[in-house]
Design a protein that fits this description.
Largest sheet: none
Structural class: mainly alpha
Order of helices and strands: HHHHHH
Helix content: over 70%
Radius of gyration: 18 Å
Distance between the termini: 52 Å
Oligomer: single chain
């Protein structure tokens, strides 16, 4: 199993793509019915689809827990949290189709950085708000 992408330590965004995780390797293992359709749609890194899916599930769960635990979240914090929780995983989904954007696109990196910075500001602001009550 030869690594194609890199993990968190090398700026790979947390997904280490191997030959088996690319569509070619996965198609060989699974017989390729659904994967062939994804390939026709232009998906080049199946691991990014999985990463996006899991990230959306985790972010939704965390937002639901925050909604249950914190009675009154200021509107601007809530907007940043919801936007960050949904836009950040979707930017990972883009990489399933165009993995070269991660290192080769200033626009993609700028958007991703802006979303994550806003998300971080929202979490810090929420912590300060809750602790100051």
């Amino acid at each position: 199993m030869r690594a194609i992408g890199t993990g968190l330590l090398h700026g790979g965004g947390g997904v280490a793509a191997t030959e088996e995780e690319t569509l070619g390797g996965a198609e060989d293992r699974a017989g390729g019915a659904g994967l062939a359709a994804l390939k026709r749609l232009g998906v080049r890194q199946l691991g990014r689809i999985r990463q996006t899916h899991l990230d959306l599930l985790m972010q939704g769960t965390i937002l639901a827990a925050i909604g249950a635990a914190v009675t009154s979240v200021p509107t601007w914090i809530g907007i940043l949290l919801v936007l960050g929780a949904y836009v950040a995983p979707l930017t990972l989904g883009v990489l399933a189709f165009r993995p070269e954007l991660q290192k080769g696109s200033i626009l993609y990196r700028g958007l991703n950085t802006t979303v994550l910075a806003g998300f971080t500001v929202a979490w810090v602001a929420l912590a300060v708000t809750v602790l100051s009550r």
